[in-house]
Design brief:
The structure holds two protein chains of two kinds.
Chain A: H1 2-44, H2 63-66, H3 73-90, H4 102-120, H5 129-151, H6 156-178
Chain B: H1 5-36, E1 39-46, E2 49-56, E3 65-72, E4 80-88, E5 92-94, E6 106-114, E7 117-126, E8 131-133, E9 137-142, E10 147-152, H2 159-162, H3 165-168, E11 169-177, E12 180-184, E13 195-200, E14 208-217, E15 222-223, E16 229-232, E17 248-255, E18 258-264, E19 274-281, E20 284-292, E21 296-298, E22 308-316, E23 319-320, E24 324-328, H4 330-333, E25 340-346, E26 349-355, H5 368-371, E27 375-383, E28 389-394, E29 398-401, E30 409-418, E31 423-427, E32 431-434, H6 443-474, H7 476-479, H8 487-494, H9 496-504, H10 559-571, H11 597-605
Parallel strand pairs in B: 1-8, 8-15
Antiparallel strand pairs in B: 1-2, 2-5, 3-4, 3-6, 6-7, 9-10, 10-13, 11-12, 11-14, 14-16, 17-18, 18-21, 19-20, 19-22, 22-23, 22-24, 25-26, 26-29, 27-28, 27-30, 30-31, 30-32
Classes of the chains: A mainly alpha, B alpha+beta.
Chain lengths: 180, 607
Amino acid sequence: MINRCILQIALLLCFSTTALSMSYNSLQNKLRNGSLECAKLLLQLNGTTDNCINERMNFKVPKEIKEPEQLQKEDTTLVIFEMLHNIHDIFRKNFSSTGWNETLVENLLGETHLQIHHLKSKINKKVTLKSVTINLRLKSYYWRIVDYLETKQYSNCAWKIVQLEIFRNFSFIIILIDYL
Amino acid sequence: MLWSPNASAVRSLHLHLLVYISLVFGISHAWLDFADQPCVFNMTLQSLRPILSWKLKNHPIVPTYYKLQHTIMSKPDTMKIVEGCTNITRPSCDVMDVLEDIHENYLFLLEGFRGSSALDNCSDIFTSADMYFEPPEFEIAGFTDLINVTVKFPPIIPKIFKKELQHSLSLVISEQSGGIVKTHKPKITGNIGGNFSYVIDKIIPNSNYCVSVYFEPKFMGSTIKPPLKCTFLQSRQESALGMVPPPENVRINSVNFKNILQWESPAFPKGNLTFTAQYLSYRRYQDMCKGTSGTECNFSSLSKYGDHTLRVRAEFAQECSDWVHVSFCPVDDTIIGPPRMQVEALADSLHLRFSAPPIENEPETWTMRNIYNSWAYHVQYWKNGTDKKFQVTSQYDFEVLRNLEPWTTYCVQVQGFLLDRNRTGEWSEPICEQTSSDDTTPSWMVAVILIASVFVVFLALLACFALLWCIYKKTKYAFSPGNALPQHLKEFLGNPHHGTRLFFSFPLLDENEVFDKLSVVMEDSEGGKQSPGESCGLGTLSGQEPPEPIAEEEAPPAGPGHALAPTSTSQGDPRDKDSPGTPERSPGLELSEAGLAPATSELGLKS
């Protein structure tokens, strides 16, 4: 009889691990689709035709974003979460100078919000030194972007530069999702 | 320094001029802006090599040569010249060395020159979304049961993809047949170079397959529609009708799930034929015996409960005959072989032990019994020489045939039998054994033997006891403690008064003792018969009549003499030696102590 019990427990474990792994897999798929959607929306925002070469700024992308292979799984989740969060916050700022279609920006905000929502449950609430460091570095990166926008007084060129930078962010996110 | 009021007019004039000029500039700038994009850029990846090409919009002045510069948008870097694309006439440039990072947004600046005068320039920012992936070159080779796809990769993967090829791109091979499209995504790494080979093997023979290969970028970018390459998969059979005859008499010989497909080679004058036998496995036929020159093929590995279709054909050189199909279900069609049996003769019965026939191709010792639930044995036995057969059915592995005649040879045969299918197997070889005699002893004999044995035992015991008793008797004196006093004496002696008297009345002769003389005068003068010599040890006595009953004083004295008296009758009186002279006795005297009478009287006087 014990044998049967063991068999049932083993089956249960197998199923639960499969289910859990599938849940992560579906998260990856959701994030991937969401990020692609966001990037498409971003590209549709037609601002100035000027290439704004002179407004370029090096925002110094942190290495956590650039080199995800060194990160652990929880840290990757945290990085993606922070990135999406900050991108969402950036696009809530005043973009009236750009002449962008507001519906598109609303959609973009909605899409990022959805992805943040998906990730929220997977974030490890434990505060470690590593997580604090990552947080700080990401926050300082996005603060540089926001500070730049403020300095340039939300001009359309500044927004274009920021748009390109955020597009870069999404291409990083796509790579990061694979490391989840 | 404040200006004079006169200067106010000048100031306003200056202001107006400034505005006018700036407007002009602005407009011209705007014009320039518009004129800035006289070309349309296009970035395509030809076998992963990024090629930037441009098209000039209908411009009156066509440049003779071009110069290309590039930079990235994430840093305020300076513009760099694209090497190999300086003073070029063609409207395209290979920018493989320029694009280093897939995550970067590149800005390209194209300058057109006519002679030595610079014409307008156009620039554009390229993101990864603007890349068009051209499909790679590939070849397909179709065989009977597989398609080999060879994709030509560039020998060197561009830097832009090298780092994370599997993250940025995936190679897709799609196969289409009969409306069904299947995509394959083989894994590719950054180290891939040269030709990449992929085999599609799950295909249906005798159908048309179309394959296309293209790149699918994981993040933005578009793919140019890939071409399709089709092949028709033919089986090797080139049916030249009737040239090669099919095998004849195709049959399945299956015993105990050892399935052998047998056929006969048809008459073929041209030479020796080889045969190929296949079985139907899901959607296609699999080979079991390929190119065999024998006339049989072992299909024991087929699953027992399946409904199988087997086929065989003859081949000669490149030509083949038609297939001959046979359908077969092992569990229903296999012949049940003869079971094994062991026979033991015990008294007048035969004990049979059966074992079901084993099955081939099973790792453990499985028998037919394991496969069939309703397995039973049919036993047939008869007396050797006669024809009358007896039948017994047994569901177990043993059976006993009872009440057979002793000292007779019986022959037994067994066959396997399936109760639910009512199917019988083959009979085993008959085994003949002779029964021995009827060993059963009749009950009366048992009783007789029992009683006899009890009797014998009883006698033996008796003899034992008798022997012991004899031994006891003989040796009782050796062991026994001696004579015992009679009871009345014991009582006498037990009385202490009597005891001492006896003790004292048993005196020793002492010459010092004084006696009173007593003489007894008798009427009978013959009293002197008693010899004077007679002297008793007891002193002087003269002729007395011993037989005279004398009142005994105080009685039963002369104890010892008395006591001795009875014994002395047989043994003689040891004290009588002193009185030899008294041979005669008084007839009336009953007392046997004749000799003692005087003693008695003597005694009586003693005090």
